[in-house]
């Protein structure tokens, strides 16, 4: 019992239910009377003003960090392997991420306006307790993806170590074949996993990343191949209806890659300095950054065909071949520099897309013991324990599963966007997100909104076959119809983004009063005399 006490985060005495709902502000005057919210689960509260530091440039830097990784590098390459020409594949990337960005911006809007994270925003649609189902699903995905990205980062670490210490390639393997990994690969994975841990410690609003080395790799390959290679001139292998459906399929895969980030978009938008900071920078930077990185991947792979006689689609494999082909000091330094940049990029992606999301979700599920920082470390531990390199051995099945599960999350996003823009039309009662008052907007039926419970599974059962749009559309349409038949409290006729509970004003007044009281208490009586 004493051990559990020591593991708890800072909080006042409260039941688990109260800890889940409440936060760290004491007796705010809401609705003309004090509202007792004295339980210190600070990460569930609206982000304090002093931490709303993300401006336009921060969101642009965030998406540069998230886009610059091995997965994005190979997006267009996989499309070319499927039979598209390079420009057809690049169009799919542009359109796919261009379509995904409005959905993400719309779902981020409540976060940028009210400065609350995804687990709290989900309460508006699914109910105070029904939202646990959403946060659990998103938390599971974040932990799995953390492990997968760490496994890819381990391959980058191996290349970097090999550039510095070529003898690592000769380490004998002491692991059985059933392990799915060799000793030297396990060493590299563990080192990547270990050096990622300090990055989780830094606050969300201090994440920055600028991937300069990717451009160096890009130029190096063009110079080495004396041109951009033959893939640029290679025609597509698909024609007619096959080409049309091939482009649709690959376009949808780009959108599916963003489904998890669309769902938890409020996590990042809650740190925005102003609503506009989370709007236009994300709207334009998402398709731009992902398209640029995928274009670099296309050119590098095309150049590799000139150099080695075959297209090398994986940048990590290509760097390994550079070391095999010409292990000079200059080559080893170049490979070290680029692989180091990939390691930083993978860490940035894991923190921004997975660690933060898992931290927010697990904070909502276990508020007595977990805050955002601890949640990030839980994701790291779970990501290691699931043996992610084994998941990647059967890449086709695993990718299909992740795509289906990610698109399943889009039905949750469909409900959340419909709730904000079409049902309540921007009207919020932030105070009701932290109390079980029966007359509260988000209490519904004992904390569950059964309208969402009826339609999300219906969309999910058909979502894999009928794509992101159908899943999103089904959840949106059914939720609209159910709310027309069974209106919810707070449904508005006109659109206006406002918190009718007056939470922000009450909080500001409360903070000012607390500061004045503190000044009076701390006055030196002898000095005043």
From TrEMBL:
Q: Which GO terms describe its cellular component?
A: plasma membrane
* UniProt membrane topology term: Multi-pass membrane protein
Q: Where in the cell is it found?
A: Membrane
Q: Print the keywords alphabetically.
A: Membrane, Transmembrane, Transmembrane helix
Superkingdom classification of source? Eukaryota
UniProt KW Transcription regulation keyword = no
Q: What is its main location?
A: membrane
What's a Pfam family in this record?
Transp_cyt_pur
User: Which ranges are annotated Basic and acidic residues under compositional bias?
Assistant: 504-519
Mention one GO molecular function.
Answer: nucleobase transmembrane transporter activity
InterPro entries named in the record: NCS1, Pur-cyt_permease, Uracil/uridine/allantoin_perm
Location of the region described as Disordered in the Swiss-Prot/TrEMBL record: 499-529
Q: Provide the transmembrane region boundaries.
A: 59-80, 86-108, 144-165, 186-204, 210-231, 243-262, 282-300, 335-353, 374-392, 404-423, 463-486
* Family, per entry: Belongs to the purine-cytosine permease (2.A.39) family.
What NCBIfam families does this protein's entry cite? ncs1
Q: What is this protein called?
A: Permease for cytosine/purines, uracil, thiamine, allantoin-domain-containing protein
Question: Can you name the source organism?
Answer: Rhodocollybia butyracea
């Amino acid at each position: 019992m004493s051990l559990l006490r020591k593991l708890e985060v800072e909080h006042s005495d409260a039941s688990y239910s109260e800890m889940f709902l409440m936060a760290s502000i004491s007796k705010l005057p809401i609705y003309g009377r004090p509202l007792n919210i004295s339980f210190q689960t600070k990460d569930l509260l609206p982000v304090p003003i002093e931490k709303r530091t993300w401006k336009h440039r921060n969101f642009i830097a965030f998406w540069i960090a998230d886009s610059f990784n091995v997965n994005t590098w190979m997006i267009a390459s996989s499309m070319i392997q499927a039979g598209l020409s390079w420009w057809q594949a690049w169009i799919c990337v542009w359109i796919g991420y261009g379509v995904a960005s409005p959905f993400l911006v719309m779902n981020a809007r409540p976060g940028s306006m009210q400065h609350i994270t995804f687990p709290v925003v989900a309460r508006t649609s699914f109910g105070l307790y029904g939202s646990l189902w959403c946060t659990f699903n998103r938390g599971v995905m974040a932990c799995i993806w953390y492990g997968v990205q760490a496994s890819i980062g381990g391959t980058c670490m191996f290349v970097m170590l090999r550039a510095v210490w070529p003898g690592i390639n000769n380490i004998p393997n002491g692991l059985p074949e059933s392990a799915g990994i060799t000793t030297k690969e396990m060493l590299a994975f563990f080192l990547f996993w270990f050096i990622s841990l300090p990055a989780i410690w830094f606050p969300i609003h201090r994440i920055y990343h600028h991937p300069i080395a990717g451009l160096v790799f890009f130029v190096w390959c063009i110079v080495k191949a004396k041109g951009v290679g033959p893939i640029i001139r290679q025609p597509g292998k698909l024609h007619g209806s096959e080409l049309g459906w091939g482009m649709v399929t690959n376009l949808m895969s780009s959108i599916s890659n963003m489904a998890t980030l669309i769902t938890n978009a409020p996590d990042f938008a809650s740190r925005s300095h102003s609503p506009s900071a989370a709007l236009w920078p994300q709207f334009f930077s998402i398709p731009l950054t992902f398209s640029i990185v995928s274009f670099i991947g296309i050119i590098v792979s095309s150049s590799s065909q000139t150099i080695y006689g075959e297209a090398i689609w994986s940048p990590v494999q290509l760097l390994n071949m550079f070391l095999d082909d010409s292990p000079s000091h200059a080559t080893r330094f170049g490979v070290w520099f680029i692989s180091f940049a990939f390691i930083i990029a993978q860490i940035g992606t894991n923190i921004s897309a997975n660690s933060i999301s898992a931290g927010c979700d697990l904070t909502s599920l276990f508020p007595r013991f977990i805050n955002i920082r601890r949640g990030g470390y839980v994701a790291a531990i779970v990501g290691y324990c699931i043996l992610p390199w084994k998941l990647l051995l059967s890449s086709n099945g695993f990718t299909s599963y992740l795509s289906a599960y990610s698109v399943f999350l889009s039905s949750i996003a469909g409900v959340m966007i419909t709730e904000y823009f079409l049902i309540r039309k921007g009207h919020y009662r932030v105070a009701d997100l932290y109390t079980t008052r029966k007359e509260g907007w988000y209490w519904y039926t004992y904390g569950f909104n059964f309208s969402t419970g009826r339609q999300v599974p219906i969309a999910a059962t058909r979502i894999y076959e009928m794509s992101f749009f159908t899943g999103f559309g089904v959840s949106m349409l059914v939720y609209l119809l159910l709310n027309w038949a069974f209106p919810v409290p707070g449904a508005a006729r006109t659109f206006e983004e406002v918190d009718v509970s007056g939470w922000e004003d009450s909080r500001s007044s409360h903070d000012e009063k607390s500061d004045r009281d503190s000044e009076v208490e701390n006055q030196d009586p002898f000095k005043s005399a």
